[in-house]
Amino acid sequence: MSEATLVGAAKRPSKITAWAAENGAVIGLIVLVAVLAVMSEDFLNPTNLLNVGVQAAVIAILALGATFVIVTAGIDLSVGSVAALSAIVLGVMSAEFGLPWPLALLMALATGIVCGLASAGLIAYGKLPPFIATLAMLGIARGLALVVSDGSPIAMPDAIASLGGNIGAYLPIPLLIMLGMGALAAVILSRTYSGRAMYAIGGNEEAARLSGIRVTRQKFVAYALSGGFAAVGGIVLASRLASAQPQAGTGYELDAIAAVVIGGASLSGGKGTAFGTLIGAFILAVLRNGLNLLSVSAFWQQVVIGVVIILAVLLDTLRRKASV
Amino acid sequence: MSQAMLRVEGVGKSFPGVRALDGVDFDLRPGEVHVLVGENGAGKSTLIKMLSGAHQPDEGSILVDGAPTRITSASEAQRLGIATIYQEFNLVPELSVAENLMLGRPPRRWGLVDRKRMRREAEELLDRVGLDLDPARRTSTLGIAQMQLVEIAKALALDARVLIMDEPTAVLTTGEVDRLFALVDRLRDRGVGIVFITHHLEEIPRIGDRVTVMRDGRVVGGAPATAPEEELITMMVGRSISQQYPREAAEAGEPLLQVEGLTRAGAFEDVSFEVRAGEVVGVAGLVGAGRTEVARALFGADRYDSGRVLVRGRPLPAGDVHAAMESGLGLVPEDRKSQGLVLDADIAENLGIVTLGHGARAGFVNRKGRRDAADRVAGQLGVKMSGLGQRVRTLSGGNQQKVVIGKWLLAESSVLILDEPTRGIDVGAKVEIYQLINALTESGHAILMISSDLPEILGMSDRVLVMSRGRLAGELPAAEATQDSVMTLAVSGMEEAHV
Ligand SMILES: Nc1ncnc2c1ncn2[C@@H]1O[C@H](COP(=O)(O)OP(=O)(O)OP(=O)(O)O)[C@@H](O)[C@H]1O
Ligand SMILES: [Mg+2]
């Protein structure tokens, strides 16, 4: 292009402002941390911070899985239930059938993936809207968790239960697992064929199809990943509780979706990153923790979190309007 | 000379990384057709968006009937009597044609939408633009030329005194263009001022009164509509173009694509043809003749009832785009916005979407390779952009089209099907694309080209297939293909159908 049409560097937004505009969630998190640090002296206490991290971990892992699906313009409402079912499978396999824990762990992962594949099958071949298919899966997985466990908690094998602990004094394993899953999700989304295809599908499914992308296959991949990540989340949750509980993770799907959206993804697809989702999960966890420290009632907490979701999406919409 | 009804003075507009308009003056008098031309990305659409309320100028002023006016929204523009047909369509795909025609102001009776009147008025509007279809049809089922005519009808419904048309003829065939021009002539006689943007320079003397040429965000000159084409081209692109259709026919080799008796009830019937290595086969026909439908069906984008498609002699499974691609077919679809582009992704991502798997290892995409390829093809096609990271939505229409072509060029398909490939592309860039077509056929690839632009078909094809009413009406070698011979075949099915 000709130089004449380029605006001088002075008029171009600097790298920092451009980055800030793209990463509103990070700024939000920093502000939130700063405010809480001033308002509550317990907040910056290392034990408390680690506590926040551990609280964030489960939601973050579920949310990372949901990110794949949301990027394709789908939705996965079943992650909380699938997490519980997977953990129950792990418990039953090792406690009742006496399987060695690595095998039981694999079966738990497989459970999550199969649930995701089943949702994808309903969407791709049954032509159900993702909302309905995964809403059904939410019920089915939760019900199965109750059936298999007969409604009572099942003890975790020691190896798994120890995942809920720390390495040394200050390194919670759930946090490490979360970071690992975050890195995995980031690599899949930004570097792999499937990841890039998911963005194309979410951005314009018809254009993706006409460009030779196997849309159905990639949707299966996205929902399977969501299920697999949910299983990991469920196992981490169970390890912290030292037992698999059929009612664990109830309502987590909404927190997970909120984290994805706060992290900058769009429910209409084509947008979202693993990093953003992690930040979103942390914003939710920090907010909950801070409100607890400030002794805000649990009732009001829900209101605040609702407002934060609105603010996050509103800011994003405004930003996008400004850039068109 | 009568006073300008609309005047733009010293208008400037910047987007991140681009100075889209710079000190632009422009005016429009009642009862004239003012043609706006310029290269892709010159700023034509941006200029008219200032008049339609879609953008506000950063500096400069807009005068309506001599009075400085701020046009802050589309409804404000409507109130001022300005109607606009945008380059990119603004139709709601899920609504019926009638609802789209009267979007936001449906006829009402006792507070409820008066469906009967809506249908009647819609029929009248469609009749004015010569579009013969059921107003109750869902808009998403229309072809691109039909959508264009609906957009035109929608703007006519406003009964404006200023009508802005951004490339209304880009996808229309000769018949529709004639009818549109007759309409424009009537409006001009009634004193309507018309801004007309086009890349088809041969239309200018037929329809225009005067021409303004833009380049890199500036007005670089004006001329009467009778000015010779070469003069306008030189002003537009800064050089002269010796040959608009530089086709160098290559030796035709073995058949690469064979279509046998392809049929889909209600769309096309018993269509058979072949395309050989090194050939450019043009497909002509009127709007609704079924050209796009055949292309999409053979590519696997839509189903068909019977028939066979063979690539290099091997039959292709029906309805499988991926398989078609693997075997060496490519399709540049007619509607870039809904079928060709991921508008909110950047240029690099869009250019690399077809070749996402190329050079991938263990599922990991080859990031550097993709970027280099995107860089190369964007340069080849002269995509005017602030960088490969620019969102495709913010590119000018012609540059968006180049991206759609570019992503398929990277695929190196052995048979590339082009559906309206040069829609919205400027004269200079067209020649570049024709040269790329030459290079492809030279190296043994083949092109099947659907176009509503008859000169393009005649100028670039080695063979012309003519479709009419879903059937192949005939085939003409380049030497025998003329405007007349093609049109005769194109309407031939019509007469039979009336018997
Ligand atoms: N919203 C936007 N953000 C950034 N750049 C933009 C935006 N809209 C337009 N531009 C840029 O402004 C320039 C002028 O674009 P415009 O659409 O006016 O061109 P045009 O003359 O209509 O071209 P064409 O013939 O291809 O339609 C282009 O370089 C384009 O990329
Ligand atoms: Mg334009």
Taking all Cα atoms into account, the compactness measure Rg of chain B is 23 Å
Which architecture of the largest domain in chain B per CATH? 3-Layer(aba) Sandwich
CATH fold name of the largest domain in chain B, please?
Rossmann fold
> At the third CATH level, what is the topology name of chain A?
ABC transporter involved in vitamin B12 uptake, BtuC
Question: Which strand-content bin applies to the residues of chain B?
Answer: 25-35%
CATH class identity of chain A: Mainly Alpha
Spans where pLDDT lies below 50 across 5 or more residues of chain A: 1-12
Number of strands of chain A: 4
**Helical percent range of chain A?**
over 70%
Mean pLDDT, all residues of chain B: 92
**Unreliable runs of chain B:** none
Structural commentary:
The complex is a heterodimer of chains A (324) and B (499). Helix content of chain A is 73%, strand content 2%. Chain A has 324 residues and is an all-alpha fold. In chain A, the strands form two sheets. In chain A, strands 1-4 form a two-stranded antiparallel sheet. Chain A has a two-stranded antiparallel sheet with strand order 2-3. Chain A is built from 14 helices and four strands. In chain A, helix 3 crosses helix 9 (193-203), helix 4 runs parallel beside helix 6 and helix 4 (79-96) crosses helix 11 (215-241). Chain A has a single domain, classed as ABC transporter involved in vitamin B12 uptake, BtuC. Chain B has 499 residues and is α/β, with parallel strands linked by helices. Chain B has three domains: 6-237, 3-Layer(aba) Sandwich (Rossmann fold), CATH 3.40.50.300; 244-328 and 414-499, Rossmann fold (3-Layer(aba) Sandwich); 340-412, no CATH class. Helix content of chain B is 33%, strand content 25%. Chain B has 17 helices and 22 strands. Chain B has helices spanning 44-51, 74-79, 97-101, 115-128, 144-156, 174-189, 204-207, 229-237, 291-299, 321-326, 336-340, 347-351, 367-381, 397-409, 427-442, 454-460, 483-498; strands spanning 6-15, 18-28, 33-38, 59-64, 67-68, 82-85, 108-109, 112-113, 162-166, 193-197, 210-215, 218-224, 255-264, 268-276, 280-285, 306-311, 314-315, 329-332, 415-419, 446-450, 463-468, 471-477. In chain B, the strands form five sheets. Chain B has a six-stranded mixed sheet with strand order 6-9-10-3-11-12, sandwiched between helices. In chain B, strands 18-19-20-15-21-22 form a six-stranded mixed sheet, sandwiched between helices. In chain B, helix 15 (427-442) links the parallel strand 19 (415-419) and strand 20. The radius of gyration of chain B is 23 Å and the shape is globular. The chains are: A mainly alpha (324), B alpha/beta (499). The interface between A and B is large, with 32 and 44 residues. Bound molecules: adenosine-5'-triphosphate and magnesium ion (MG). Magnesium ion (MG) is lined by residues 44-45, 87, 166, 396-397 of chain B.
